[in-house]
Amino acid sequence: MNQSYVIAREQYRDIGVDTDAAVAALERISISMQCWQGDDVRGFLFRDRSLSGGIQATGNYPGRARTPRELREDMEVALRLVPGHHRVSLHAIYADTEEQPDLDSLEPCHFASWVEWAKEKGLGLDFNQTLFSHPRAESGFTLSSADEGIRSFWVEHCKRAREIGAYFGRELNSRCVTNLWIADGWKDTPIDRAGPRQRLERSLNEIYARELDPRYHLDALESKLFGIGSESYVVGSHEFYMGYAVKHGKAITLDTGHFHPTEQVSNKISALLLFTPELLLHVSRPVRWDSDHVVILDDELREIAHELIRGDLLDRVHIGLDYFDASINRVAAWVIGMRSMQKALLLALLEPSSALKELERAGDLTGRLAYLENLKSMPWQAVWEWFCEKNGVPLDWLPRVRRYEMDVLANREAH
Ligand code: RNT
Ligand code: ZN
Fold this sequence. Notes:
415 residues; alpha/beta; 8-stranded parallel β-sheet; two-stranded antiparallel ribbon
């Protein structure tokens, strides 16, 4: 334990904060790391297909993972540089199989190697249905399609993905969140807004008809404001899924990039949790649009973390990351995002919330603001350093990533 931590602990003690307890609490928080940062959301099922469905990974930094083995190796490198125990979120297109099943015939066995790996590494797994980058999604409509063949294809895919999620949960004895996001919508103003939403509701009812054991599985639904090619109308809007999830007891997924730029996810959590049992966060960073930049320690991330800690909500809110930046080293992108999320949580854990609540209750708004600003220059970095040290993770992690890049990533040819 270094001197700076000892001093910092003293300073925090003076304002009523127990830094050892904060570090212990942070060690218990798992974050779900998105596998798709490692290969620009390509997956392994259909190797010749590029990303479509209103989302885009921009950049061509060398070293993209091309096989499940490479992707796992990259994630291992990243996870070794992130303190604590975490989860990995997979998409259906990351199936590891030579059989080439289409999305409507996926089975748990196509993910057996992932489960084996997760067991070996002590990781939890989360899952996502994949309803993009596929010929049957090209019309712009999947679960809300008026074409019954297309709609039922995707219903079948979604049902199977839930079974795979439940298999993850059972095998790993750790509840899997399976998240559903679709890009369905119109580029230009539609005449019929209701029809696609009625069909989406019907599809969801079919998908969720079979109850899965809640100990092992949780369904989550992710809305969106707009995408490329769905600028004027998105079928699965926030109101749509909010209504559906509340009515059927599903979890709502809040992606920080899926709202109007001045709307804040941090301000939605306490409202939604009154009416829905659980939430999944897709922590992302929108820059002017849903650009999926690497998560950094910005104001909104801090505010989200504070909401979770102040409200003691961690058993009801699942934290997942969602971004994919192909313009920088992809392993570094994971490490930066994961560690930023942890730093935000640490800052929240180091807040003397009861003193602040007291000021607020007493109507001392000047005191509340002054106190919050003073907290920003408290020596939290020393606590972060101790957290890394205690968990055997280097503070200065970038040299390790650079070495891995030189030894491994640089030798991967793009194709
Ligand atoms: C897209 C959604 C969705 C995807 C991932 C790959 O806007 O955020 O969550 O990013 O499923
Ligand atoms: Zn998302």
